[in-house]
Write a structure and sequence with these properties.
Shape: elongated
Number of helices: 4
Strand content: under 5%
Helix content: over 70%
Oligomer: single chain
Number of domains: 1
Number of strands: 0
Order of helices and strands: HHHH
Distance between the termini: 58 Å
Largest sheet: none
Length: 86
Amino acid sequence: MKRVNESKVIEIIKEAEGDITVRDICRKHQITEQTFYRWRNKYGGMDASEARRLRELEKENNQLKQIVADLTLDNRILRDVNQKKW
């Protein structure tokens, strides 16, 4: 399955607020119901700008986690070197 951008996902979710059933929407857009409900849990009630901001925050959060992991590793290495008797 190809990746769908956030604005398209939000359009699909808003489509479900009308008279169309979820099954019909999924068939129309060639997605599974599980995918639809996962999108609805993540993006429900958002507009496109909020979804973009969420993606940016997730990216920033991953970068910060990587920085913390690197610093923790450096700290452990320095502690091990410092504890050895020379």
